[in-house]
Amino acid sequence: MTSAIELHGAPHVERYLETDGRDGYHWRNGTTILLLFTTGRSSGLPRTNALIFQPWEDAYLVVASKGGAPEPPAWFLNLQADPLVEVQIRGERFAARARVATPEEKPAMWARMVEAWPDYDDYQTKTARTIPVVVLERV
Predict the structure, then answer these.
(1) Nearest to 61 by CA among 100, 22, 23
(2) Closest Cα partner for 36 from 6, 61, 66?
(3) Is residue 82 a contact partner of residue 41, using CB atoms and an 8 Å limit?
(4) Does the N terminus or the C terminus of the chain have fewer Cβ atoms within 10 A?
(5) Whose CA is closest to 85, among 73, 77, 97, 101?
(6) How far apart are CA 92 and CA 108, in angstroms?
(7) What percent of the chain has pLDDT over 90?
């Protein structure tokens, strides 16, 4: 197993794809990374983002935090426009449907994600928007 390496943005995605996640799956502070493939809502072009995730029952969770910015990340807007996405975890790529966690689901899901990346709580204090937890369910 390759140790965690410091990759960000496009170089992270490229290295993850080149190595089937051998490089890029393990990231900072013990986190794990998946690749989320969306379609640009305006451009129609494919977009790929490396995101911290946690498994949840038969699904996977990601957080649309953008570091606590006032606006959500572009990938979140893309999946709102088209919730049919693809996900890659290590060398496995599969189709999924993205949805926002319900108010009933979110507290437990948020706690799981904060356990993986404690900064999410800090990000929420930086913005007036409610940061969503996104559930990625295989289709």
Answers:
(1) 100
(2) 61
(3) yes
(4) N
(5) 97
(6) 27
(7) 93
